[in-house]
Amino acid sequence: MDCSSRDAERMCRLIGGACRKYRQPKNKQTDSAKRRSRMRVRRRKGKGARARSRRERRARPCPGRRDAGRRGSFRDQNGKDEPMSGFKKSQARAPARRDHYREVTDRIVAALEQGVAPWRRPWNPDKAAGPLSPINATTGRRYRGINVLLLGMSRFSFASGDPRFCSYKQAKDRGWQVRAGEKGATIYFYKSLCVEDRDAPADGEEHTRNIPLLRSFTVFNGSQIDGIPEFVPPTIEEAPWRRFEAADIILRNSGAVVRIGGDQAFYSPSTDHIQLPMERAFSSPEAYAAVQMHELTHFSGAKNRLNRDLSGRFGSAKYAFEELVADLSSCMINTELGLPTDIENHASYLSFWIERLKSDKREIFRAAAAAQKAADYCLAFHPDFAESRSDSDEQDASDSDAPLVEAA
């Protein structure tokens, strides 16, 4: 079929190019197929371009600066370019570090706001298995300082008749097992970290200094542990400082001047003497002995002894802080001697303690440390207790695997 006219040529194209002149070779695509192929390529390129554009927008260091460099920069409020390195780090939320001082203080303040000093025993020691200071179940050492206060606040402490505590690992190493679902008590120790002292003189010998870091540990009471041997409280022969006359022995050996009479109990720094009412004015001999130990802790703070600040007058901040130290210390002493700890104090002390602790989260740690020193000073006047402490100190000194110091 030959196409000589223009109409015939157009018709030939419409019917598919039947003539030889306009017939397409079989190995070549038609115009429509080429157009479809080009359209598919454009669509693919368009998707890729849009994807690349999104990636570039995400990778751009600063959307507000179109001419930012390769490393990236941003313009601060003063119009200066600042490097973007570390920008994401500053924006990321770092995990909040636990504030152990604040946690302890908040617990104690919450108890004080309810009108209760949490370091006092709310039970009758005669009905418990034995009012002993908390001890470690594996080493036998007494806990000290703030840990005495915290373990005394535990619902298992003493009321369970078992003053022993230990960590999960210590129990596991002994073949014991903490029961599932049991909740422990938190105690604190100081770990000494040795760092370079940049402020040290160049010609000096010491170029390092130690920084105390407060570490927390969880311990469990003996009543929460399966497999632990049954606790047997020490007998009077094993702990003779728990005899009835122990307070009199301590007071007599201290050398304190004690005057009897009047209706008040106090220690006078100016005359360095303890004033006590007559014994029959107290509800029981145990209550009388407890007040003796309370006033003896004030006696320990004199300048020629432990040198605490006793210059505060009644109602002042210094006076109330000294009462906090004496209250904590007498509780430690009376717990060790088996005496009552619920000595009545002026109501204004509680409000001051709350205000002071809220304003200074380390105050309770300082008070507990001073109270522990006062308790050690007073208890050392009992010869049997002093001997027992010297034996335990020798054992502690022989231990080389104890890098932590209790938060006294």
How would you characterize the overall build of this protein?
The protein has helices at 6-14, 31-59, 87-91, 100-113, 146-152, 168-173, 246-254, 285-300, 317-337, 347-359, 363-379, 383-398, and strands at 73-75, 81-83, 135-136, 164-167, 177-178, 185-196, 208-221, 225-226, 257-260, 266-268, 273-276, 404-406. With 408 residues, the chain is α+β, with helices and mostly antiparallel strands. The strands form 4 sheets. The protein has a 5-stranded mixed beta sheet with strand order 3-4-7-6-12. A 3-stranded mixed beta sheet has the order 9-11-10, with helices on one face. Strands 1-2 form a two-stranded antiparallel sheet. It is elongated, with a radius of gyration of 40 Å. 25% of the residues are buried. Mean pLDDT is 76; it is low at 63-74, 87-92, 122-131 and 394-403.
Spatial strand order of the main sheet: 3-4-7-6-12
The assigned structural class equals alpha+beta
- What is the residue-mean pLDDT, rounded to a whole number? 76
Task: Tell me the number of helical segments per DSSP (H or I, 4 or more residues long).
Answer: 12
Count all strands and give the number: 12
| Percent in strands | 5-15%
Biggest sheet overview: 5 strands, mixed
The number of distinct structural domains comes to 1
Radius of gyration: 40 Å
* SSE string, helices as H and strands as E: HHEEHHEHEHEEEEHEEEHHHHHE
What's the overall geometry?
Answer: elongated
Q: What separation lies between the terminal Cα atoms?
A: 114 Å
Flag low-confidence runs.
Answer: 63-74, 87-92, 122-131, 394-403
